[in-house]
Amino acid sequence: MIYSKQFIQDQLAPVAVYAKLKTLFKDEISYLFESAGGSEGNYSFICIGARERIQYIDNQTLYTDADGIVHVKDESPFIFLKNYYKDIDTSIYKKATSELKVGYVDGFIGYIGYDMVKVFEPKLHATMDNLVDELNTPDLDLILPKMILVYSHKNYQLTLISTLKEMSEKFEMVEDALKTSYEYVHMKRNVGIDKGTFAFSKEQFFKMVDDSKEMIRSGDVFQILMTNRFTRNIHVDPFSFYRILRSKNPSPYMFLVEYEDFNIVGSSPEVMVRLTGGELLLRPIAGTRKRGATKARDKELEDELLADPKELSEHLMLIDLGRNDVSRV
């Protein structure tokens, strides 16, 4: 059964709602998926607690059931999810989605790390298993939330959702807390003097770029994403870090994911993949320019993008990559 409660909350932004919920559910895993800036995102989502969990650690799929018991599974997490959902009656979720007019009412949610590519492409296992894991975090970590809060940016309606009766009994407490006066949460400064280091020196990185160009010319690959991890050993408050990022780079897809011993913060202007009513959408951004001061200047920049061979080539490449990805579904 899906329990829900809806009410208007037009005086608190999602980030303030999240701050209040953190005080109510201090010991729970929590997620904030926020749309800030632009008109791309109509909703923000807050997830509280994990009633079930899937992790991929050291090439093993770990499933934590509703009783908190951890099971080691023989299959990949994606096969596990496929089997998990095959016998579930999805009609109740579709009905709730339609009645509540929100796009997400339940389901595993979290992150899938880059290293999960070795599960999609098993031939990469041998190479990738030799890489040093500097972070020691799961390659995949997904939860079934105990409670979901959906914030509509159009009508400021807040929807509380849960499949657990004991959590639904806390809906009134949550509503009361959100309707009391808000106490501003001051940002916390980073503590530490470490200036940080890059994984590769400037010279090493430039050589990697040159080597990549040669691999592209020889036809070995046609897209390479070069990265250089930057690490600082300092004490950081994740919520303050997120708020700073939010103010400097507001985006339609922002996230703060807080686990027991690590956090993930980020923002993106584009949707990676979206499935709606059996239709799969990929919409990568190819080619950007800073906005002009006038409409006429914007039009000049638009024409410049449309006539740029490099931008057109990148656009075509992304279409090909997207077509290849969709063909595997």
Briefly say what this structure is.
The protein is α+β, with helices and mostly antiparallel strands and 329 residues long. Helix content is 34%, strand content 24%.
Task: Describe the protein's architecture and organization.
There is one protein chain. The chain has helices spanning 14-24, 77-86, 91-100, 117-120, 125-128, 165-168, 171-179, 202-217, 238-248, 295-307, 309-327, and strands at 3-8, 30-34, 43-57, 60-64, 70-73, 109-112, 140-152, 157-162, 197-198, 230-231, 253-258, 263-268, 274-276, 279-281. The chain folds into 3 domains: 3-188 and 237-269, Anthranilate synthase (4-Layer Sandwich), CATH 3.60.120.10; 195-230, no CATH class; 271-329, no CATH class. With 329 residues, it is an alpha+beta fold. The model has no long low-confidence stretch (mean pLDDT 92). The protein contains 11 helices and 14 strands. A hairpin with a 5-residue loop joins strand 4 and strand 5.
